[in-house]
Amino acid sequence: MHDSLKAIGEKFNLPGTFYACETITNGNVNSTYKVTYLDKGEPVSYIFQRINTYAFHKPEEIMMNIDRVSNHIHEHFPDEQTLVFYNTDEGHNYCYDSSGDFWRVMNYVDSITFNATDDTAVIESVGQAFGHFTMQLSGFDGNLLYETIPNFHNTAARLDKLFADAAEDPKRRRSKVQAELDYISSVKDLASDLSIRFNNKDLPVRVTHNDTKCNNVLFDRVTKKPLVVIDYDTIMPGMAIYDFGDAVRFIANTADEDEPDISKVSFDIDKYRAFCKGYIREVRDSITQEELDSMGLATFSITIELASRFLDDYLLGDEYFKINYPEHNLVRTRCQLALAKDIWSKMVQLNAIVKEVAEQ
Ligand code: GN1
Ligand code: MG
């Protein structure tokens, strides 16, 4: 790896001499490295990322989205920490290596991240960070961005694809997952509702992050305040409430996203409330009442959607998500379905919490 990273660094003309590299293991799709150079005796670190072009078919469009969004944030919020992407001699913020892989390089921000936390103050800060991101971009027309993964959060289309792939069953795995397919089928209309309303233009198009896991917020090591939201790959036009729903889906789960023992999986209402406090404080003036009223349903819908994506990938032979063992995608599916069921059982409370926090 060392030699290929060194070659990438040369394309971006990074100053100093190559000193060290380490793999960063967060993330299910791209490959990420922290690379350190010695520049006039001082260590300076960068993040190098190889984009998974199976997931992202048009990486140049991603980099154009990133350019537009970061310019908007720089221009309107010049004093805030942002991500900086480096350019090659040709003036591109990416390059291809000799094997045709797509790379980019950005600044390394010294920080800490939380993969999971029980600290409601941190959870509130994660809510604040993602709410702030939505607010920062509320003046930017989401239609100006490429839809880099078409229908990424089109739940209705995702579910149709799942059932079509299950009918084809290329890997002969369907018989193992009939119970999961039956449950998803029973909630299909409910889970698809917001995506259909969005497609009918009944919910506003916004700039969405589309991967609002808590480990995509960098925190100051000392003050524990949020510094910046990272992972701009999936920035696209979309529904703000799905960003909200995806974030709480992840942070308020009492277990890991791929917990095999589903008796450990549930949706923690106190964590939900903490996230809502941080998030709604930031977005209150930029989102509509209808969006606020749909936050609980969005949480359920995105959880069903992710379960169906894991299940679809399982049925197709595990091509999209990295797996650590053969049934990993099935375990993930079952975990997300258990979570969705618990979210649904608490829907009245979820809606009441949003209302209460919004009125504070
Ligand atoms: C993928 O690779 P990572 O962890 O950033 C996926 C998200 C899922 C997530 C589930 C482009 O994100 O949509 O919510 O896994 N990203 C893409 O862990 O498909
Ligand atoms: Mg991501």
Describe it.
The structure is a single chain. The protein is α+β, with helices and mostly antiparallel strands and 360 residues long. The chain has two domains: 106 residues, Phosphorylase Kinase, domain 1; 239 residues, Alpha-Beta Complex (Aminoglycoside 3'-phosphotransferase, Chain: A, domain 2), CATH 3.90.1200. Helices cover 46% and strands 13% of the residues. It has a five-stranded antiparallel β-sheet, covered by helices on one side. It has a two-stranded antiparallel ribbon with strand order 6-9. Strands 7-8 form a two-stranded antiparallel ribbon. Helix 4 runs parallel beside helix 10. The longest helix is centred in the last third of the chain and has 22 residues. The chain is globular. The termini are far apart. Bound molecules: 2-acetamido-2-deoxy-1-O-phosphono-alpha-D-glucopyranose and magnesium ion (MG).
Please report the first level of CATH classification, the CATH class of the largest domain: Alpha Beta
The parts where pLDDT drops under 50 for at least 5 residues are none
Average the pLDDT over all residues and give the rounded result. Answer: 95
Query: What is the terminal-to-terminal distance?
Result: 52 Å
Helix content: 40-55%
Query: What count of structural domains?
Result: 2
Reported for the largest beta sheet, the result is: 5 strands, antiparallel
Report the structural category. alpha+beta
Query: How many beta-strand segments?
Result: 9
- How are strands sequenced across the largest beta sheet? 1-2-3-5-4
User: Any guess at the CATH architecture of the largest domain?
Assistant: Alpha-Beta Complex
